[in-house]
Write a structure and sequence with these properties.
Strand order of the largest sheet: 3-4-5-6-7-8-9
Number of strands: 14
Distance between the termini: 72 Å
Low-confidence stretches: 298-305
CATH topology of the largest domain: Fructose-1,6-Bisphosphatase, Chain A, domain 1
Mean pLDDT: 89
CATH architecture of the largest domain: 2-Layer Sandwich
Number of domains: 2
Structural class: alpha+beta
CATH class of the largest domain: Alpha Beta
Cofactor: Mg(2+)
Shape: globular
EC number: 3.1.3.25
CATH superfamily of the largest domain: Fructose-1,6-Bisphosphatase, subunit A, domain 1
Catalytic activity: a myo-inositol phosphate + H2O = myo-inositol + phosphate
Number of helices: 8
Helix content: 25-40%
Family: Belongs to the inositol monophosphatase superfamily.
Strand content: 15-25%
GO molecular function, one term: inositol monophosphate phosphatase activity
Largest sheet: 7 strands, mixed
């Protein structure tokens, strides 16, 4: 799709994403000189995140001064927070990758109109890959129409995910969920930039993506890419109202449908019975993996009461 036939708001989002990408690429030439701050343990922000975000906001609000902004680093500090049009921005998704020089990161911009995502851009500045979507008009990579993969068997699927990294994340439950998925698929990958993971599902490079703990700016643009490419997106139980629920599953329809029953019991919306079964399984696994004493008892069992 040529730029002349794009929705004008999508064209403006592309302009903003490319401006941010230019800032990121310049900084990547000497990434060790970039100043890094810690928002919380293992959660970083750089001066590049902030500069890229400002470039995006200035571009969008110059064109549409009455619109609202929801951005990862500045929240809703800019723009009209009561507007029907809200731009949802992640200026550098994959900051940890970026500060290590690992070239998997992107710019993510989505436009929500009355709460529904209508426009989406995910831009990979390292490869100059531009993923775009307008609701009802399909998804594109560098102006070429993209579709989700045609694989129908979960055992043949390549699935991407993200690992827990924040204090308080339930690592044991996540590892159990990961194990459930790994033994049913041909492979699991963890690239480290959720918006790009979703774009890759839309392009058919992978068959599905799942992750818990994500914010709306991580998934807004990528989820529209997936659905406009013929895929499905929802929470782990398959419900479509997922944007602010901090869990997402996206994939081609057949693979998505086979992953829902695998992941549903790990959802925060799972029934009490499923949650109890998961807890019991984790407790059983912990007991089985406890170090054994010479008498054959686990060290936990052998403690004096």
């Amino acid at each position: 799709m040529s730029s002349s036939s794009l929705h004008p708001m999508l064209n403006m989002a592309i302009k903003a994403a490319r401006a941010a990408g230019a800032i990121i690429n310049r900084a990547a030439l000497d990434v060790e000189a970039v100043r890094v701050s810690t928002k919380q343990v293992n959660d970083f922000v750089t001066e590049v995140d902030q500069q890229a975000e400002q470039a995006i906001i200035e571009t969008l609000l110059t064109a549409y001064p009455g619109h609202g902004i929801l951005a990862e680093e500045s929240g809703n500090e800019y723009g009209n927070r009561n507007s029907d049009h809200i731009w949802i921005i992640d200026p550098l998704d994959g900051t940890t990758n970026f500060i290590h020089g690992f070239p998997v990161y992107c710019v993510s911009i989505a436009l929500a109109v009355n709460g529904r995502i209508e426009q989406a851009v995910v831009y990979d500045p390292t490869r100059n890959d531009l993923f775009t979507a307008t609701r009802g008009r399909g998804a594109f990579l560098n102006e070429r129409r993209i579709r989700v993969s045609k694989r129908t068997m979960l055992r043949e699927a390549l699935v991407s995910t993200g690992f827990p990294y924040r204090p308080g994340d339930n690592l044991k439950q996540y590892m159990a969920m990961l194990g459930d998925v790994m033994q049913r698929t041909s492979g699991v990958r963890r690239p480290g930039a959720a918006a790009l993971d979703l774009a890759y599902v839309a392009a058919g490079f992978s068959d599905a993506f799942f992750e818990a703990g994500l914010s709306i700016w991580d998934v807004a643009a990528g989820s529209l890419l997936v659905t406009e490419a013929g895929g499905l997106a929802g929470n782990f139980t398959g419900e479509a109202d997922f944007l602010e629920q901090r869990e997402i599953l996206a994939g081609s329809p057949r693979i998505y449908g086979q992953l829902v029953p695998v992941l549903a019991k790990y959802s925060k919306f799972a029934g009490a019975g499923d949650k109890a079964a998961v807890r019991q399984s984790l407790e059983n696994n912990a007991a089985e993996s406890a170090p054994q004493t010479e008498e054959g008892q686990s060290q936990e069992d052998g403690k004096a009461e």
